[in-house]
Design a protein that fits this description.
The chain has about 325 residues and is an alpha/beta fold. The chain has eight helices and 15 strands. The strands form three sheets. The protein has a seven-stranded parallel sheet with strand order 5-9-4-1-2-3-10, with helices on both faces. Strands 12-11-13-14-15 form a five-stranded parallel sheet. Strands 6-7-8 form a three-stranded antiparallel sheet, with no helix packed on it. Strand 13, helix 7 and strand 14 form a beta-alpha-beta unit. The radius of gyration is 24 Å and the shape is elongated. Flavin-adenine dinucleotide (FAD) binds next to helix 6, helix 7, strand 14 and helix 8.
Length: about 325
């Protein structure tokens, strides 16, 4: 006998959990499947009736004593163990920071189908193949997928689906024993996040630096310009994540700014970065490569070596006593 289609919902965000249950139960109503909810981590106020009325047929409760809330690996290991035991057709994961960390790692480990930013999905009840439409490039386009693996993991962000209360429903509550997590990495030290000063999002002038700045010592030059403009320094992702010069970056996965003027220095203009600065009123860019993509996104483009341009600009500002209005 072929097992029926099972939709498994997991989200560490309780509101999103309900929305995903709502969407899963709509699809289950069409394909004849069941909807399950996986609870990982502490859920002291869980009201199982609420989950049942949002669409859950089954609720898997787990022991959370092995989970470290700061350490995604422990959640990922528990999630993988749950998927191995439940073997859902579709695991629908809430698009939170934790969800985006866990879901692709679990998919890789289980050789499951995977897509993020799901906008809709369906399951063929006979073949159990899953189709999904997902947002790509921050909403610039969509991709259509067909998955043939036994498990498909889809990540969906808040605001895409919603739950409708289905009164008088009840759910079966099942205690699920998970394998003890064996994380592949270990946390050696916790450090508090360094404060970046005023919020970048509120900055009127932003000096945005990229890998064209070669050495950390060279930051003195850009700091001088930032001080003259009363601006804030910001950077591309590799400057923060690889070189660790700043605690945060601009872009798709970073902060988004909307200053009056954003000056980019040695930034190539990758779309993932441009998403963070494109709402600036004016973008002026300095890059030594005349074909750099950043020039397509800029109001002013300066083809120059920033190490020659910056001192000349600062000198000219001093000569003309230019200060920001
Ligand atoms: C899923 C995903 C998400 C991502 N999210 C982000 C994100 O949120 N934010 C982000 O920033 N990136 C993100 N990235 C990375 C992004 O794709 C680029 O790799 C990154 O933005 C490039 O950084 P960069 O411009 O500093 O470096 P590079 O691409 O190396 O560019 C350096 C530029 O400096 C110029 N240059 C070199 N020397 C000089 C000089 N002396 N004077 C003037 N110019 C010079 C070069 O011509 C070049 O254009 C993401 C990538 C992926 C795959």
């Amino acid at each position: 006998m072929t097992a029926s289609v099972e939709f498994l919902v997991f989200s560490d965000d309780p509101a999103l959990r309900l929305d995903l249950l709502g969407r899963a139960s709509q699809t289950a109503a069409k394909s004849g499947g069941t909807v399950s909810l996986l609870l990982l981590g502490p859920n002291p106020n869980d009201d199982f009736d609420v989950y049942a009325q949002a669409g859950a047929d089954k609720i898997y409760k787990t022991d959370s004593s092995n989970l470290d809330k700061y350490f995604a690996d422990t959640y990922t290991a528990a999630f993988i163990s749950a998927l191995e035991k439940i073997m859902p057709t579709v695991a629908l994961v809430g698009g939170t920071k934790r969800g985006f960390e866990m879901a692709p790692a679990a998919a890789e480990s289980l050789n499951a189908g995977y897509a993020s930013w799901a906008l809709d999905f369906d399951v063929d009840p006979t073949t159990k193949q899953v189709t999904a439409n997902c947002m790509i490039y921050s909403g610039v386009g969509t991709s259509a997928y067909l998955f043939k693996q036994p498990i498909t993991i889809l990540v969906a962000a808040a605001g895409k689906f919603s739950a409708e209360a289905q009164p008088n429903r009840t759910a079966e509550v099942i205690e699920l024993q998970l394998d003890a997590p064996s994380p592949v990495s270990e946390i050696l030290e916790y450090k508090p996040k360094a404060e970046a000063g005023a919020r970048l999002e509120d900055a009127v002038f932003v000096i945005d630096i990229g890998q064209g700045i070669k050495l950390k010592e060279d930051l003195g030059l850009v700091e001088e310009l930032a001080a003259k403009l009363h601006g804030q320094l910001a950077c591309t992702r590799p400057i923060a994540s690889d070189r660790d010069w700043f605690p945060e970056w601009l872009g798709l996965s970073g902060a988004k700014v909307h200053p009056r003027l954003c000056i980019t220095l040695g930034v190539s203009g990758a779309i993932q970065h441009v998403i963070g600065i494109r709402d600036s009123k004016v973008i002026a860019s300095v890059n030594s490569d005349e074909n750099a993509g950043i020039f397509m996104q800029s109001d002013y483009g300066i083809v120059a070596d920033l190490y020659e341009f910056l001192p000349a600009l600062i000198k000219r500002m001093e000569e003309r006593e230019i200060t920001p209005a």
